[in-house]
Amino acid sequence: MAYRARLQKFDDLISEDIIDLSELKSVAFHGIPDDQGLRSLCWRLLLNYLPPERELWDSFLLKKRDLYRQFIDEMIVMPGSKEENGDVTFNDHPLSNNPDSQWQTFFKDNEVLLQIDKDVRRLCPDISFFQQPTEFPCTKIVDSKEEIRLHKRVQRCVLKSANVERKGLGITKIALTRRKANEDYAPMTEGKEAHWEVVERILFLYAKLNPGQSYVQGMNEIVGPIYHAFASDPDINYREHAEADCFFCFTNLMSEIRDFFIKSLDETDHGINKMMNKMLNHLKIYDRDVWFKLQQLDLKPQYYSFRWITLLLSQEFPLPDVLRIWDSLFSDESRFDFLINVCCAMIIILRERLLQGDFPSNIKLLQSFPPMDVQIILSKAIDLSKFEH
Q: Lower CB density within 10 Å: C or N end of the chain?
């Protein structure tokens, strides 16, 4: 289908009073054009955020975006009170063992926040997007005279660390030393915030609202491409609310892949171990020679495909290719079955090198997938899907 015809097909689909989601998935599976913010809009539909009825969009979005602002107020802007020196104070004692203690909650939040802060600063290092200032900073936070920006809160809490030094069997010496703050990136000027700060806020709120799961390293790689797509939308009315919409789309996506991130669920039907075994079984059907070679070398799928599946291939390809792959993954009627076929396609495309390689060369090849046209991989994965049926 010619590019203009594809554009017209998408325009026709999303102009309907009631979006035919089945038809949209069928068309989007083969890639969503980068023009006119189509990907941003289609992902909102494919991730079950926007309802199919167009007439409901305005009221629905208004309600959701107001709810997100409420989350920011309740969990970032208002908690605790600040003294003149910026320290946080609560009504209870910092050493209280009460599980309802505000201080206990504050300390636990900061443990999570420390990991989030470290991860979001490393997002997509090949592009400068996440280090650039957003057009639409959260004014309640950046204009506040109090130090409520999350990365500032982390820096403040890690400034002092205790170095414990034991001298023989005698007294333990505890030295408080100032720790160097993260200086990887220059701070934004007053009134501005970088895109990575916005992603940090999304992940922190997600962790607060999902205490059973909280934040797990790697979630930053899932939210990053969604936020990039939304914050790059040419339509200012959507771009302005990229943060709130991204939060809810990310939450919906995590509800589908959450089992990948919970170790206790590794062996469930949708757990990561079952997914890796499924990939290996598919490979055995599609290309027995390659499967046998990997078995011979004892090159287990845990060594390479754990990251592929858990992070939806977001670490294996440049961002534009990840966006294209996710068009297909989000359009997959049997959610993420196609991911297994993409992983198998990646292996089979490298079959000649894998069949000739030893353990070190093959594991290096699979852990650092060589650059290639992502369409070749997707086409191969589609062929494998037909073979399966």
A: C
